[in-house]
């Protein structure tokens, strides 16, 4: 291990030296004092940057850019789309991200819809959107980044933040580049949008630490029925923001691989409320958590399949359940019941397997509930 670390350190020095030399030759800042670095490339009419300071963009306009991310095995780069609505007047800077997982389409459309509603000429402050963070995962509409370092290896990019520009994997380096040069420098607050994963759908809910006043104020502005009051585990993007003092949380918007217009509209409305709360856009608030019945839980109870077979759910998303209540049964190819599943807690259904069949070990149900004293870090099966 020590030998590997030593070799890795030497390699990092060599790579950094080469990268610095190459960048000096191939990139140019907008001005001698600029913190925005243009690579000189243009893709589909959009300039490419390797670092960005939104304060250097022209006020009162929308700006469409590409950010140069990590290199592919061929030596070319993965690029992510950056939309900046720079207000005509100064104000707070908000960041909206999606596509950290490649199968989460409703999150992408939510961010696009919010950005399409913004008029920079009427704004005070800036909103930046990055909708395709994990670009190679999005290309195949799969959850994880297909890393090529030691044969194919699927890496969950939402366990990599804040990343490491000299990390051992491409996703780690990509996260480091984005966080250090694009996201963190331009954020006073941040919202990282997600959905359920392939084969597993969730309700409309927000994840965030409600003990943080800046987070609580934003989360309660959404007209959705559930709040997961939990900081969850290290490595997720919203926690990387939180660790550097930037209030952040994660909305969850239904099922993967589809667009859910009804849920999307709720999160668009809530996000516009957040922008109004921060004084970036003007106008009356839409519906908030005060206009719906909200269940707040600080933990999630997973029910995993113990057998293989066809899954029949006996409850629906958002249903209330009690301890011992049967929530699902499973049948084999003959139609015989091979497993029955009951809730171990009192709470509300927040997620269900949407694929009709399951192997042993797959999550079937998640139940949002309240623990008297939840652990600091809870890891949930996927």
Automatic annotation (TrEMBL):
Cofactor: Zn(2+)
Keyword Hydrolase attached: yes
Gene3D superfamilies, A to Z: Zn peptidases
CDD domains in UniProt: M14_ASTE_ASPA-like
Superkingdom of source: Bacteria
Occurrences of domain Succinylglutamate desuccinylase/Aspartoacylase catalytic (ranges): 90-277
UniProt xrefs under SUPFAM superfamilies: Zn-dependent exopeptidases
Record keywords: Hydrolase, Metal-binding, Signal, Zinc
Keyword Hydrolase (UniProt): yes
Residues in the signal sequence: 1-22
Name this protein carries in UniProt: Deacylase
Pfam family, one: AstE_AspA_cat
